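Why this split exists: single-chain examples teach little about how molecules sit against one another. For that reason, every record in the complexes split bundles all components of an assembly together and asks for one structure covering all of them. Below is a record exactly as it appears in the raw files.
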Amino acid sequence: MNSFKKHALKLSREYTQANFAWVLSFAVSLVFLINSFNYKEGTIKSLVFTIFIVYAVFTVYQLFLTWKIKKDLLKFGAIQPTTRKLGYIQLLSILSANVFTASFAFNLIKKKKTPEYTFAVYMLFTQIFVIAVSAFNLFKPYVTDTFVPAMGILLGILFFQIVTLVLVGKYVQDESAPSWFLIIAVLLIISSLTGNLFNLLLGISLAIKARSYDRSRIMKWNTMWNKITRNSTAILGLFFIILMLSLSVCSKYTFDYDLAVENDYGSLLQKPSLEHPFGTDDFGRDLFSRIIFGARISLLVGFASTIIPLIIGGFLGAIAGYYTKRADNIIMRLLDILYAIPGILLAIAIIAAFGANTMNLILALSVGAIPSYARTMRANVLMVSNYEYVDSARALGSSDLSIIFKQIVPNSLAPMIVKATLTIGGAVIATSSLSFLGLGVEPHIPEWGNILKIGSTYLESHAYLAIIPGLAIIGLVLSFNFLGDGLRDAFDPRMD
Amino acid sequence: MGINKEPSVNLVFFDHLAYIFEKMMKRNTYKYLLLLLGFPLHVVIFIIYRLKRNNDTYSIIHKKINASLQTSGLKEQLKSEFKEQYVRKHAFFHETVDEQHMNSEVDRLAQEKYSKLLAENIDAEYEQQGLVKLNYISYFRDLLKKPLFLIVSFIPGVLMYILLFLISNFFIKFVFERLVMSVLVIAGVSVLVFTILYLSPFDPAANLLGEAATKEQIASFNHTYGLDLPYLAQLWNAVKGIFTFDLGASFTGNEDVAASIANKFPITLTIAIFSLLMAVVIAIPVGIISATRQNTFLDYSFMFIALIGLSIPNFWQGLIFILNFSIKLQWLPATYNPQNLLSIIMPVIVLGTGLTASVARMTRSSMLEIINEDYIITAKAKGLNERQVLWKHAIGNAMIPIITVIGLLFGDMLGGAAVTEKVFNVSGIGSYIVDKQFIPDIPAIMGGVIYIAITISLVNVLIDILYAFFDPRIRSKMKQL
């Protein structure tokens, strides 16, 4: 009996997440504690210290919850309803922007979690964060004309999302949803135009469950998303990516682009303050706005320079893997030439030849990535084309093209998606590296590498100018890597 | 070494040579290569062979069998069979029969079948009479077995014999093939990089001489550097320059490009090799520990740190290091200086971080895969303790994919060296390329990129060869080819 309960401890999703949440929350508190002292003058920065206190309180409460869950599991083999109710208090930690404990709290209060519930929770988080980040503009002397209506719309969507979350928690089952959810689904899909892709995911998911009677399809969808959402780091990665995406869409209306690019000689190199949360640079431009607008370029280049080689490399790889040995040899030997040049060097050569701008940067990064996609695709196609369903399609008289695109490609996509997710991070790093060298995005565009390049010259006096854009890059890249790892674990049949 | 184990080979050298010759004649590339390299010899031997063949029994038997088949009406019989099939097939699919198309199709099929049957019958006849069928390849092979022939023909066929010797041992053959492949790849790389730079819309002459330059000045600049030649001539000069280490002078400063590259290469390579050593020393133990303690707090922490290491941009890490260790703590110099050994520490760590992280992740997953293999379970069932299983059975096999990955990542590291070199002001090959790209200084960029690509190719060739040497599975696979 005892071993059964120990097993319950190991199996419990909540217990793992509780540990994950308190460790990370503790780490963040520690960072705030270290930063709350002014070492030169020996004083305490009151604002940072207050934030530390808030985080510390939630961390301690999180530790208490973790201990309680462990006791429940060892004693009863299941988490008791009273413990779950205690989770409601931890929901408050969302107000301190502590995603780790807040997402755990949402997981704790609901016993049976559908993928829709997780989507709804993170959808809400994303919206709250977008609104909170945009609200920092209120401290500026002026806001853009579109600020008020845009914030109004965002708040309206937030309200709608809260209602949706409650409804989803109440009515959506593992295998079905009431048919009136279709209306909500449509509204959600429309509202995903704000860049909050959790809306889209939830909308699609609800539409599938409300309309389809095909249980196997629903089960498949559930299994896949359960695997991804169970992985705390993967879903946090997805959250951060979608947050960045949503911010770069909404910033068009809530942020003033002029603050990021126009020189303001009245406020050069100012320290962080409420008006300029990250300070200003050597031309008096607001670093906060610049970072927000930089996300747009990084995401654009990252996605574009992943999708282009994915399509070209995938196509070449599929042909090489499916057709004769001769086609295979010609394609793969030519790609070997491309593969022999390291990606960054090839990009430097291409940019040296055609000039440094965003378009050339995307092309340069894409060309270098083609061979590795082609190799992955070829290996998949070689494996898949030996399966029986391909033989049966051939026996039914399908043409080669229809076999490739209807049977083989869909079944060899999973490793490609994983690879793509993992390489977007690399593309983001490459983009900023090349910009840092002066070979990437044009210097006047606020891009993270460009911002860092300026910051690097003020390393001694204004280090934050170099540190903050670097943290933004790491955050985005780390998120893509976490998501990629999560997707790989979800798609890899060996892990089952 | 391996020769003795080949089934049909005697110890005699000549027999082995003949055996290899016959084997290689079955593979298209080698067949043409052997015929081409020994062309004068083959011409002479072929004439002798034709003369001899006329006296051979082949033509007699061919005539005899052909005549007997003709008289038996085989061809007509085949035709009617195919015709019937054709009609039935069309009837089944409800298609109309096109008389002309049908006839040509039936003729073709019947002729094919007839030739096949004829060849079969001839073969059967040969076997019955106990004769050996003579063709050029077997004729030549028999000649090769005679030492006297080899001595006489050695001078005209020396190229072919060298090739035969190279491919006679599977290991030499593998190395030879691999080297040929990399030479081809390097030539391809040269063509590609040159073409990219050639297509450039920029005009180096105008950039360097300024807007005030006269037409004559530009023309003379272009003439000096051979930029007025047609594409193919320039390409030929570039490829020749790459292989002879003579790339001419750079556009700015008029320095010898090959010499400057040779000056800058050692420091880049030194940093890269130290980074590699750092990665191996740190990452492999970390990976093994993570794999053996899967899903523990230690494992999670290691992998989390590794993922952060993968996500940190080199230049940012370099700046943070300079900020903390040079500006705040003043432990290490911020820029590289050849006289100060301490100054190499930060560039090595920064360049090696990404590699260390990837290798640690790779080691972990490779170890996990091996640990779950059946033979490890067998070893455990045998009663070996954890340590013996790990060291004797798991690690050796887990290292195989890791070494490949290290080879591939080493290339990425050399390519990414430009960024690190710029941050720490190292005057290596990477920062050389970046400095030259604004003009663009075509010979300098081309030389830098291609020589790095060559270094990477050579490292990968070396790794492949080492593998073939150490991994018995690869060796046995090579023998089968």
